[in-house]
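User: I'm writing a tutorial on reading structure tokens. Could you give me a worked example: one chain, its sequence, then its tokens, then a sentence or two explaining what the tokens reveal?
Assistant: Sure. Here is the example chain.
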Amino acid sequence: TADSDRQTAQAAVFTLGTISSKRARTALKTLSEDPQHPLRVWIAVAMHRQGQPGTASRFQKLLQDKDVTIRRQAVDALATLEKFDPTDLLIKALEDQDGLVRRTATTALGNSSNPKAKKAVKNYLRRKVDELLPLLTGSDRRKQYEARKKLQMLGPPAAPLLLDQLEKTSSPTSRTLAYMIGGMRNAEVLPRVVATLRQPNLPKDRRTTFELVLLGMGEEAAEAATELLADGSDAVRESGARVLARVGGEAAADKLKAALKDKSPKVRAYAAMGLSAKQDPEALKVLEEAMRSRDAEVRNVALSALARYDSQTVLPLVRPLVETADTATAQNLLFVLSNFREAEATEGIVRLTQKHPSLANFSIYSLRRQGTPAAAQALGRLLDHKDRRVQQAARAALQRMPLPEAREILKRAEQKKAAEKTTAPKIAPKRAK
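And here are its predicted structure tokens:
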């Protein structure tokens, strides 16, 4: 037990706990008398395994230890003790200053079959949720961040309570809550989320919010999304397709393949988007059809998906849109064109900038993302833009481009600026009367 290798020493302590001889019991008792022993948690566990009395008092001391590592080890070990009810100790651990200690205690109490444990953890979680939720809507960014962190540390048992809040009201924090609930991976919330998404008349903003819960659960949500995809309502099937498209994976691919033939254009478009990651040829046909849709959402889904295909496939499809796109579609189109280095793509970005001046900053980002000499030239022209903020953004983009052309354009712009200063007429000061 005094070995310099911690694992060896810990294994020795555990082995002593399996020996029922008086010598083994005395050895562990002697070790336990050192209040600073680095293995004091494992010594307490070993003594319990031997059947020595005093488990509750030993762990009570460990949970009050100044060393947070010891307290974390102790609360972890409590749930593993056989023939011992740790409920009272775990309830006390809920008030620990360390979030990880509290989270471990919360999870252990939530998994317990003891009614007292269930009630204690429920009361604790409700109190913490009521205390922290108002901070999410405040104006103090630091407090918002701390509240999110503390809510996440409550762990999976808090998910149903947060879902209660999400079901009651729609607020600016709804999306944050949805991500948080999904990330807690509590299987109890799945049936409730699916039931909500099965409502055909669910408002769109609420629908996308509850979809975020499923997305936060990752692959565990694939089965639930598949259920939605088999529903009779177009809106419900759209939810299934959107979630599956973002979850991905081989299991999702088979379902999305079948959804390419769905009667709803949106379901087909989202299914094609999910399959576009592998440049699926069947999905491409659906995307070509979606590009001709009068529904802006369907067109924008198709645009997002086309960004994953090669330029020879995409540029002929998006060419007509450059002249006809509305502002929302133009913004998506700028992102698609930024994926390609061809001159036609750069010309498209420039034309969209001319037609939609409000998207100048998106255009600048797209040109910088292209990173070609032609894109640098286009950014150079924006240095003379009437809006000073656009000029500054274009200059910053050129400074970040690792191209000789970009440096040359900036150099010429500085020379031009200096020349204008020297040739500007001087205005004589007015004489005093």
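What the tokens reveal: Residues 115-136 form the longest helix (22 residues). Residues 14 and 295 are 67 Å apart (CA to CA).
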